[in-house]
Sequence to fold (607 residues):
Amino acid sequence: MCGIIGIIGKAPVTPLLVDALKRLEYRGYDSSGVATLVNGHIDRRRAEGKLVNLEARLASEPLPGTIGIGHTRWATHGKPSERNAHPIATDRVAVVHNGIIENFQELKGELVAEGRHFDSDTDTEVVAQLITSYLEKQMSPEQAMGKAMERLRGAFALAILFSGRHDILMGARRGSSLAVGYGDGEMYVGTDALALAPFTRQVSYLEDDDWVVLRADGCTVYQGGFEVKREVRQSGISGAMIGKGNHRHFMLKEIHEQPAVIGDTLQTYLDPATRSVTLPVLPFDWNKVSRITMTACGTAYYACMVAKYWFEGLARLSVEVEVASELRYREPPLPEGGVCIAVSQSGETVDTLAAIRYAKANKQTILSVVNVPESAIARESHLVLPTLAGPEISVASTKATTTQLTVLLCLAIAAGRARGTLSPEAEARLALALIELPAHVNQALNMEEEYRRVAETVLAEARDVLYLGRGSSFPIALEGALKLKEISYIHAEGYAAGEMKHGPIALIDETVPVVVVAPTDAIFDKTASNFEQAKARGGKLVLLSDAAGVGRLGNQAVVSLTLPTVDPVVAPILYTVPVQLLAYYTAVAKGTDVDQPRNLAKSVTVE
Ligand code: AGP
Fold:
């Protein structure tokens, strides 16, 4: 969602602001803008649509100044337009904002009653008008900011520029993330370390309710009326990590990074010498866990669905999996002694965050699997098991997913060992399957031409596509359908293969491709029956299987993709790769914006 950058520097800041906004594009946006101080006055350029439009504005109307703020906006209140694009400004302040000001109607009412005139449809404008109102009542910028923090409700990150004040820039956070960067005679504030990466790797993260006053040589952080200290750390993200390399899209680059990042993740959670998993000490005893509740959104939710099969099968533990947006409001009873596992790439997804807060309030131990260790979900968990995927830029989650699955399988193996449901021999067998997984994923990646052909000849022309799978392949069918929908805009449904005959079979005719995820496992014969039922209705069957499966069903498919033969337990991780590439090449064939699909955001920080 929205991206924020602020710089108080020595040189003209506009090129740096735009450069940072490019690194924030991945979050999803529909307009952008920058503001600087020019001879003490706030001046801004804003544009609807992609950053190239803003760059064109800046080319015709350059914006000088050594202090400024910038923003990529994902519309929540007010349609995407130049008028609603940030920075939102009065003659005294300019504000950029990520999140939602929940009491904006109430505040707007008060401010309009004071005689203030609003120029935009945004909730953000109440922040600008409120601070302006305080400044006009002779408060200092610091007093005005402190007072505004008391009045604002909701989740937000803010950066604020004050007219006539070349010496200060302010930031604030409640809920949404905000990082402070320390440079040499320059200071920065930004949504994340990625935005700041080429400027500095010295960062600190604001905590909820913090607000910060930046000066060119340092900053002061406040919480309530008091000064507080926040640790300055060396960010692990370098500017070099966030390029596309030789790939056309970030998504393709990230898909190809999977053998390496799965390998990096395994190095942390598995000992190849002893062929056993090695987890940190857990804050609970697997034999005393009353229940496991798993929660996440989107693709991360499907990773949880796969993990349910693993926890149940390997550790005989009962697991509830629920999308976070439902769990948080359903308010289910959670028995004391339960563990809540939250899975999130960004660690900032607001529904997942709210779900773990609910679980924590109900005395659950919170274990999170996240890719951004300094994120809110990580910070609010009792234990974090990081995925080592590195920065994921493409909106479509790929390498984060396969590393999430890798961590969750290691966790399920550890649970099985602790509960005596998994023998040392079985653990060693699974450890070996995991050790061999990066090589198998690599083999699956080497079939790229085949995915491209299927995408171009079968999927790209379709109006609807059905994905089927059974057992732990069912969530992979769901994931395949989600990936296709989000980046190619083709309607797709994922279904449990056995459930097809209860409704979706009515959709099948010779125009509907049916992608069947079918590694040879204990229930392959059942999937094969469903495959034949779909074939009998004229469906265009695309088979994803191994040599044995293709040998058995390949002659009935319009196309079969033969993946490496692996232990069925790790198959969901491997089979995630072909469904990613089928979606990718379909999107490329359709000419959609692969890395920034319409309406979507990378980090979903609003409900
Ligand atoms: C994945 O391709 C999606 N863009 C989306 O479903 C994503 O997985 C979801 O929004 C959850 O995000 P998170 O992992 O950062 O919490």
Observations:
- The two ends are 11 Å apart (CA to CA).
